[in-house]
Specification:
mainly alpha; 466 residues; 76% helix; single chain; Serine Threonine Protein Phosphatase 5, Tetratricopeptide repeat; two-stranded parallel ribbon; 1% strand
Length: 466
């Protein structure tokens, strides 16, 4: 039985949900259906949104706006072919509807054809009276294309339309940061703050830009203004704590981190920072307490296990350090820095086979630092495998062909192998690269430092360089 709308609540959503609970059928304007559908889609209630679309199209079968909402759901659910067919039908009916172009752009975006999506959005922009949402979509497409300059320009337009659009504001600053234009971000944020002096979000972002530029007093002031604007802004207290750490004010930093814990539930990151501050204050008991609190709060936070590892490593308690670095590796076995730390600990424990394996993992995972090659070669020497050490240094030399350190170490390894011919060739290259680093060779290989052979080569190189 169809009932007149006056006999039921006027609130469209309440009325619609009331209808779903009964066998009654209520009539709604197409605009009411649009409001109902938007409400459900915005709140992630897709099934209710689809129900509203179905009933809406039964009552208003020729409504283009309802059919476009149907397209939106089809695109969301990746039914792209069906969505395109429906758009083709709609475009015949209304060739100048910008929403048709927007939905086509969404389809192309889903297919990773972002250039086509941009072209369609620009067509929609030419038709639209309200371009706010289109600029936001353009900004996202340009982000997908790694065109941060154009992305930034579009998000800026969104902010100019609505200065409370913090999502777009964050995206603007993200683009500045990716472009490493911290000065530009500071200028933009200061201009924004002139118009919105009590915007805690802007002060917070400004503080971060000053932090990146190591302008710590300015950063501190910005975070203070963020807190004045909103004294429950947890992020501002946390970032302020990081600045205070940089300034060596560890007790003040601890107080700010503790404030974040009081505002919201404790976080492992806050415990970790507090632990590091106590370690800087040489309060080992409190440092340990907070490090253990870190991993208790989040057992999967590898940085927490690494902090405990470093704590024991510095105390030369290598067995405990090894236990905890293995905890970190169990969580993130693809982290080359953890493998490098594991290698150093095993070296200290004289577990040279394990250290060799850990350095190999370090390199395989992409850590090609000069020190990694030098330390790995040293482990091979300690393991009495000089040929393996030479092979490691040769690989390192490919990455660092101008490194005198590698060449001097290679010289020593050739001498250990009793290959004086190769040693002479490599040493000559090392001396030409940087004769001042000869002391490193003498310190590392004292058994060869006073030889007549070495003196003759040095003398020859000095004469040749005159």
């Amino acid at each position: 039985m169809a009932l007149d709308s006056e006999e039921r609540p006027n609130e469209p959503i309440v009325k619609f949900e009331s209808m779903l609970k009964t066998d009654d059928i209520y009539f709604f304007d197409a605009e009411d259906f649009e409001d109902i559908i938007h409400h459900y889609l915005n709140n992630g209630k897709i099934s209710l949104g689809k129900k509203a679309i179905k009933i809406g199209l039964q009552q208003h079968p020729h409504s283009i706006e309802l059919k476009l909402l149907q397209v939106e759901v089809l695109v969301f659910e990746n039914n792209l072919d069906v969505a395109e067919q429906l758009l083709d039908e709609l475009q015949i009916l209304d060739v100048n509807n910008e929403e048709i172009y927007i939905q086509r752009a969404n389809i192309y975006s889903k297919k990773d054809n972002h250039e086509a999506a941009v072209n369609l959005l620009n067509k929609a922009l030419a038709m639209a009276e309200d371009s706010f949402d289109i600029h936001s979509l353009l900004g996202m497409e340009y982000l997908f294309m790694d065109d941060f300059k154009l992305a930034k320009e579009n998000f800026m337009k969104c902010v100019s339309f609505d200065e409370q659009d913090y999502s777009s504001l964050y995206n603007v600053i993200y683009c500045f940061e990716f472009l490493e234009d911290y000065d530009g971000a500071i200028l933009y944020l200061n201009d924004y703050i002139d118009r919105n002096p009590y915007c805690e979000v802007a002060w917070h972002q400004l503080g971060k830009q000053y932090y990146y530029k190591k302008m710590y007093p300015e950063s501190l002031a910005a975070f203070d203004f963020a807190i004045i604007s909103d004294d429950l802004f947890m992020g501002a207290y946390f970032e302020k704590g990081k600045v205070l750490e940089k300034l060596g004010k560890y007790q003040d930093a601890i107080e700010n981190y503790e404030t974040t814990i009081k505002i919201e539930d404790p976080t492992s990151h806050a415990y970790l920072r507090i632990g590091k501050c106590y370690e800087k204050l040489n309060n080992d008991d409190m440092a340990k307490y907070y490090y253990y609190q870190t991993v208790h709060e989040d057992p999967l936070l590898d940085k927490g296990w690494l902090a405990i590892t470093n704590f024991y490593f510095q105390k030369k308690n290598f067995k405990k350090a090894l236990y905890y670095i293995n905890k970190a590796l169990n969580i993130d076995g693809e982290n080359p820095d953890y493998w490098r730390k594991c290698a150093k600990i095993n070296t200290a424990l004289k577990n040279y086979d394990q250290a060799d394996y850990a350095y190999k993992q370090t390199i395989d995972l992409g850590n090609y630092d000069l020190d990694t090659w030098l330390q790995w070669a040293e482990v091979a020497r300690l393991n009495k495998d000089v040929p393996a050490g030479l092979h490691i240094l040769e690989q390192g030399h490919e990455f660092y062909p101008d490194s005198a350190e590698i060449l001097f170490k290679m010289t020593g390894f050739h001498l250990l192998s009793q290959d004086r011919v190769s040693a002479r060739v490599v040493l000559s290259k090392a001396l030409k690269k940087d004769i001042k680093k000869l002391d490193l060779f003498k310190e590392e290989f004292p058994q060869f430092s006073e030889s007549e052979w070495l003196d003759n080569i040095i003398s020859h190189i000095k004469k040749a360089s005159r």
